[in-house]
């Protein structure tokens, strides 16, 4: 019975991680940015959904939609105020830009964490589930909301696949990740491509944050953990590899679920971080990455 519970819960949380990690992977693959404020953006979306749905009595669906929108805004603000100025700065040597962006997003994430704790709360908050009721699967009681979360995540991942592989804008994103200079020679503006990929990322991160708040809850104390999980997934799967991130999301999701059930919830991120160290040592390119 416990094994089935772990299997079901792990699938849902892994789908959430996969949804968030794909956006993380996309912005790295296209613009070379590892956004260490990722957890902060997810939590901003979750807190916004909670406050609008509860304090403003707007209802779960309106609150959730508003949370996704605010997550998108937070992502664009991160790009416009933190990442873009560093990338365009003439005072920073070109070969040091990445480390400055890494540091800038890390500090931005800390600022978000402190702001959320100050203006709202540092305790996890939960949004009313999108759908009520409980199903029984193999003798295990599973909330319909948990099933719906997994379905939403995989539906959005499918839509993203169609966008990237079946549209002109999506093909431009792929081209930017392979040969950005060649793309500019074809008349594309890289600034527009980067804005598009950050927009996609903001929607994915915002949606993942809101869904997380309806499932496990989210708060400022979770920001570091969420960022660490996303970073582990992206590096474990292979930097820039979407399929690798999806595979790694399920590895990390199930490791964390097993640890939470069998050891302690507070230690859930430790095994995945240890696995990350092992993989980086034995296979630096990740599970599905290329050297």
Query: Any guess at the CATH architecture?
Result: Orthogonal Bundle
Q: How many individual helices?
A: 11
For the record, the CATH class is Mainly Alpha
Assign a percent range to the helix content. Answer: over 70%
So what's the overall shape?
globular
The portion of residues forming beta strands comes to: under 5%
**CA gyration radius, whole angstroms:** 19 Å
Q: Order of strands across the widest beta sheet?
A: 1-2
Oligomer: single chain
Count of discrete domains: 1
Number of strands: 2
Terminal Cα span: 42 Å
Major sheet characteristics: 2 strands, antiparallel
- Taken in chain order, the helices and strands follow as HHHHEEHHHHHHH
Q: Poorly predicted ranges (pLDDT <50, ≥5 residues)?
A: none
Would you tell me the overall average pLDDT? 87
Q: Kindly report the CATH topology.
A: ABC transporter involved in vitamin B12 uptake, BtuC
Class computed from helices, strands and strand pairing:
mainly alpha
Can you characterise this structure?
This protein has 291 residues and is mainly α. The chain has a single domain (2-282), classed as ABC transporter involved in vitamin B12 uptake, BtuC (Orthogonal Bundle). The chain has eleven helices and two strands, in the order H-H-H-H-E-E-H-H-H-H-H-H-H. It has helices at residues 2-31, 38-54, 60-88, 97-119, 144-166, 168-178, 180-185, 190-215, 223-237, 242-262, 270-282, and strands at residues 134-137, 140-143. The chain has a two-stranded antiparallel sheet with strand order 1-2. Helix 1 (2-31) packs parallel to helix 5 (144-166) and helix 1 (2-31) packs antiparallel against helix 10 (242-262). The N and C termini lie far apart (42 Å). The mean pLDDT is 87.
């Amino acid at each position: 019975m416990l094994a089935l519970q772990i299997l079901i819960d792990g699938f849902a949380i892994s789908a959430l991680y996969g949804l968030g990690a794909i956006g993380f992977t996309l912005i790295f693959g296209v613009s070379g940015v590892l956004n260490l404020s990722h957890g902060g953006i997810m939590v901003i979306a979750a807190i916004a959904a909670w406050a609008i749905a509860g304090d403003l009595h707007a209802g779960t669906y309106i609150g959730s939609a508003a949370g996704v929108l605010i997550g998108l805004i937070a992502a664009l603000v991160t790009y416009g105020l933190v990442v873009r100025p560093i990338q365009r700065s003439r005072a920073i040597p070109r070969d040091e830009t990445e480390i400055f962006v890494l540091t800038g997003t890390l500090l931005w994430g800390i600022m978000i964490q402190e702001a959320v704790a100050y203006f709202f709360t540092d305790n996890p908050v939960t949004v009313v589930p999108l759908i009520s009721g409980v199903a029984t699967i193999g003798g295990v009681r599973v909330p319909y909301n948990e099933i719906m979360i997994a379905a939403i995540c995989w539906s959005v991942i499918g839509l993203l696949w169609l966008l990237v592989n079946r549209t002109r804008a999506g093909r431009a994103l792929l081209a930017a990740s392979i040969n950005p200079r060649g793309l500019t020679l074809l008349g594309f503006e890289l600034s527009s491509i980067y804005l598009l990929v950050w927009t996609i990322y903001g929607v994915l991160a915002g949606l993942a944050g809101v869904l997380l708040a309806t499932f496990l809850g989210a708060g400022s104390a979770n920001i570091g953990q969420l960022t660490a999980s996303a970073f582990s997934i992206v590096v474990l799967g292979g930097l820039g590899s979407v399929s690798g991130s999806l595979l790694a999301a399920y590895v990390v999701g199930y490791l964390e679920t097993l640890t939470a059930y069998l050891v302690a919830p507070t230690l859930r991120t430790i095994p995945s971080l240890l696995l990350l160290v092992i993989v980086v040592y034995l296979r630096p390119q990740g599970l599905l990455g290329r050297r």
